[in-house]
Each structure stands twice: as structure tokens, then as C-alpha cells.
Design goal:
It is built from 10 helices and 6 strands, in the order βαβαβααβαααβαβαα. By secondary structure, it is of the alpha/beta class. The protein has a single domain, classed as HUPs (Rossmann fold), CATH 3.40.50.620. Helix 8 links the parallel strand 5 and strand 6. The longest helix is centred in the C-terminal third of the chain and has 19 residues. The protein is globular. It binds pantoate. Pantoate binds next to strand 2 and helix 7.
């Protein structure tokens, strides 16, 4: 596995792969990799000839400086996991490589980003779309892999691909969970023992809600009007 640190090195490599008609899979990440990421990498290795994994904690998608500072960074452990999972090139750029100058272009996904996570993290999806567009341009993938855990992010990236005519296939991969149901996430490392113990209750509540809705849909509705006397 090669480790590339500059945008120019990644562009040069992907140019050679494209000339040799190799299919390129891209797995964008912010590192602190877990089994959910590794499944994306394995799927990309199965579907493509070569796989680029980016590890970059993207400052423009954080609207809280402290959150950016505390985001887990374990580059050596990440690199050790990626080779065996099928990564061909690990792209680990600096902030200066990704943002040689401040960007002026603004992404606005309208109603798509005014609900759920977007409502509470203004500018977050602008930052995601900016860095993902840059990664698409630098690695020119045939397929790009994202986890369904970040459902709204997948919807925003689908819109980005459609609006800017990126010539690639988006692959959304199912959420991978811990044995107790908690969705795997790099941020789980930051949970206190109490919060970690409580976190699976959220999934239990959602799963219960989903099963009740499903049950309701399959219960025959009473046909009171049929028995009306008039
Ligand atoms: O899902 C993530 O880890 C990030 O939002 C992404 C897609 C790598 C962009 O920085």
C-alpha cells in the first residue's frame, strides 16, 4: 500500500490508473477507522481494480473548533488496518494540501440540509460537499463508498453528484453495529463509560418504533362505515 500526502501525487497516480483502464474505488474517511470503514474498503476492493482511502479530518465541516480539535486522530493505527483490508493507496493530506487557499464557493442544499443533523450543524454539509468534491476531482473514482449511518450525508452527496454531473457511482453501504446495537462510529471513542452504556438504548427505541409502525401497517383497520345503519 502506498501512502500519498500531496494532491499532486494522488492526481498523478489516478491519471496512470485511468490510462491503464483500471477501475478506481474511493472510500473517503476522517480516520479513527473501525470495522464499518473496513467493510467499505473490502467492498471497494471487491468491486474495483484499485482502492483509494482518504484519511483527512476536514476543518470546513466542523462548526465547533473544540469538536475539530478533539476529533480522534490515530494515523499509524489507521495505516496498519488499511493494507490488509485491500487499500491500494492511502491519501493523508495536510490541511494546506486540501485548502491551499480559502474556498469562496458555497454549497447550499436547501431543504435537504435544513432538517435533522443539518439543522443543528449550520455549514456542515457545505464543508462535506466541498471536501468530497475535491476528493472526487483528485482521485477520479468510478465508484465512491459511504456508510448509510450518515443517512443525510448520503442524500446530500447523491444530490452533489447529480447537480455537478460527477461521472461515478455512489455506493451506500449498510450500517455496521456493535454487538449491543450501537452503530460503529469514530466518535464512539469520545463517549464516557456512562454515555457508552446508555447509547444502545437509542437504537433499541428506534427499532421498537419501527416494529410498531410495521405492525400497525399489517393490522386490518376496523371498517366501521360498513356497519352504519343509514
Ligand atoms: O463521513 C465522513 O467521515 C466525512 O463526512 C467525509 C465524507 C469523509 C467527508 O469529510
Amino acid at each position: 500500500m502506498e501512502i500519498l500526502q500531496s494532491a499532486a501525487a494522488l492526481q498523478a497516480q489516478t491519471e496512470i490508473w485511468r490510462q491503464n483502464k483500471l477501475r478506481i474505488g474511493l472510500v473517503p474517511t476522517m480516520g479513527a477507522l473501525h470495522e464499518g470503514h473496513l467493510q467499505l474498503v473490502r467492498a471497494a476492493a471487491q468491486d474495483n481494480d484499485v482502492v483509494v482511502v482518504s484519511v483527512f479530518v476536514n476543518p470546513t465541516q466542523f462548526n465547533n473548533a473544540e469538536d475539530f480539535r478533539l476529533y480522534p486522530r490515530v494515523p499509524d493505527a489507521d495505516a496498519a488496518l488499511l493494507g490488509p483490508a485491500g487499500c491500494t493507496a492511502l491519501f493523508m493530506p495536510s490541511v494546506e494540501q486540501m485548502y491551499p487557499q480559502p474556498t469562496v464557493l458555497r454549497f447550499d442544499f436547501g431543504p435537504l440540509e435544513q432538517v435533522m443533523e443539518g439543522e443543528h450543524r449550520p455549514g456542515h454539509f457545505h464543508g462535506v460537499a466541498t471536501v468530497v468534491s475535491k476528493l472526487f476531482h483528485l482521485s477520479r473514482p468510478h465508484r465512491a463508498y459511504f456508510g448509510q449511518k450518515d443517512l443525510q450525508q448520503v442524500a446530500v452527496i447523491r444530490q452533489l453528484i447529480a447537480d455537478l454531473s460527477f461521472d461515478l457511482e455512489l455506493v451506500a453501504y449498510p450500517t455496521i453495529r456493535e454487538a449491543d446495537g450501537l452503530a460503529m462510529s469514530s466518535r464512539n471513542r469520545r463517549l464516557s463509560p456512562e454515555a457508552r452504556a446508555a447509547a444502545p438504548r437509542l437504537y433499541e427505541a428506534l427499532a421498537l418504533g419501527a416494529s410498531l409502525v410495521e405492525e400497525q401497517q399489517h393490522t386490518p383497520k376496523p371498517c366501521s362505515r360498513l356497519w352504519s345503519s343509514s
